[in-house]
Amino acid sequence: MSHLVLSVPETVTSHYVIATSEPPDDPRAVVPWRVPEPFRTAAVQALTTPRLGIFTISAGEAMWRLDDVLASDDDQRRVRESSHQIVVVHRAATVDQPHGEQTARAVARAIADAANGILIDPQARHVVLRDGLARAERGWFRMGDQWFGTRYDINEAAGRPDSADAPRATAACSCLRITLLGLRRFGLPDLVVDKVACAHDLAALNLLRALACRLLSDQWRWARLHPDQPTRPLDDHPKVDPEDFWTFWGATPFVDGRPMTARLVPISRTTLEVTPPADYRGTRAEWGREVLVPAMPPLVGCPADEDAPRPRSAGSEG
User: Fold this and answer.
1) Which residues contact 187 (CB under 8 A, 6 or more apart)?
2) CATH class for domain 10-134?
3) In the chain, what are the domain boundaries?
4) Integer Cα distance of 231 and 223 in angstroms
5) Measured at the alpha carbon of residue 186, what is the angle toward residues 303 and 76, in degrees to the nearest 5?
6) Which of 4, 10, 69, 141 could, after both became Cys, cross-link 98 (CB 3.0–4.6 A)?
7) Do 314 and 273 form a contact (C-beta atoms < 8 A)?
8) φ, ψ for residue 61 (rounded to 5)?
9) Does pLDDT of 181 surpass 90?
10) At what angle do helices 99-114 and 27-34 cross, to 10 degrees?
11) Tens of pLDDT along 75-129?
12) Cα–Cα dist 167/202, whole Å
């Protein structure tokens, strides 16, 4: 085993975009009345500093490409037809995370509500929901509250199975590349896992989520304990526990999992690839079937303990 060197930036920057045809004359004015506690005081204070910028531009001047964000058909239509974008830019100290980022998104939610707009997270490449369990910022940080997005890329040359070969071929192919987006807003590289069999896509995604939980928790702990250290060591073969997955969702375990070890390989300044351990001798498909799938709970999503009801596992009947 060896160690990587991971940057711990002093400050991090994030962005939110509100697509609207009803921009308020002064978006800042709506914030104090619409941001809920426990973020209202922090939001009002941030508005008086350069740390929080709010800008209104016409759709023709838009700096963000929004045609590929994950959104419902109706939200996509509203984004296309919007006349303006309100951009919220937030800069915060890493040591003040995650509360600082929650405050910024609470401000963006308030402006979107006042402007009857669609709130878009450009880092995660999706629309932030306005209803359901994710409609408001919690007083505590839950990683599963739409902070991370996913991108699926298909390598057609890697033997993507056709429907006639399923399901056996879907467990032996290696055509998927899955990227977890959104970590960069917290000063960490994005995570990607490549050469994934179609049948193992959920387990691979949940591995990325569990790793994100572990990396974020360690990053914030390091920033608090070593505020003057701009880098930190990172084990390139981290052990991932089922508890990391459940912490991501803020839930008590109710489906079995098991510990596993993965390898982290830097492939760019902004991305870490997740691979089998260096001493694993099997194929990617074998690693997925023998190690990954048994380790990761088979859940598409999971409400926090304070939410109900609990979901069924993937593939359950009834």
Assistant:
1) 7, 8, 9, 12, 94, 97, 219
2) alpha beta
3) 10-134, 149-295
4) 10
5) 60
6) 141
7) no
8) -95, 5
9) yes
10) 110
11) 999 999 999 999 999 999 999 999 999 999 999 999 999 999 999 999 999 999 8
12) 15
* Nearest Cα residue to 257 out of 268, 272, 269, 241: 241
Q: Which residues are 240's β-sheet partners?
A: 260
For 70, counting Cβ atoms within 10 Å of its Cβ (0-12 exposed, 13-18 middle, 19+ buried), the class is: middle
| Distant-in-sequence contacts of 258-265, Cβ < 8 A, 24+ apart | 258/294, 258/295, 259/295, 260/207, 260/291, 260/292, 260/295, 261/237, 262/207, 262/211, 262/237, 262/238, 263/236, 263/237, 264/4, 264/211, 264/234, 264/236, 264/237, 264/238, 265/236
All residues at 6 or more sequence positions from 312 whose CB lies less than 8 Å from its CB, including other chains: 318
Angle, vertex CA 149, rays to CA 143 and CA 153, nearest 5: 145
CB 108 within 8 A of CB 118: no
Q: Distance of alpha carbon 222 from its chain centroid, rounded?
A: 21
The overall average pLDDT reported for the chain is 89
Contact 2, 277 (CB under 8 A): no
Q: Which amino acid is at 283?
A: T
Q: Please check whether residue 52 is in contact with residue 145, taking contact to mean a CB–CB distance below 8 angstroms.
A: no
Helix (H, G, I), strand (E, B) or coil at 57: strand
Nearest Cα to 104, choosing from 82, 84, 87?
87
Asked if the bond preceding 309 is cis, omega within 30° of 0, the reply is yes
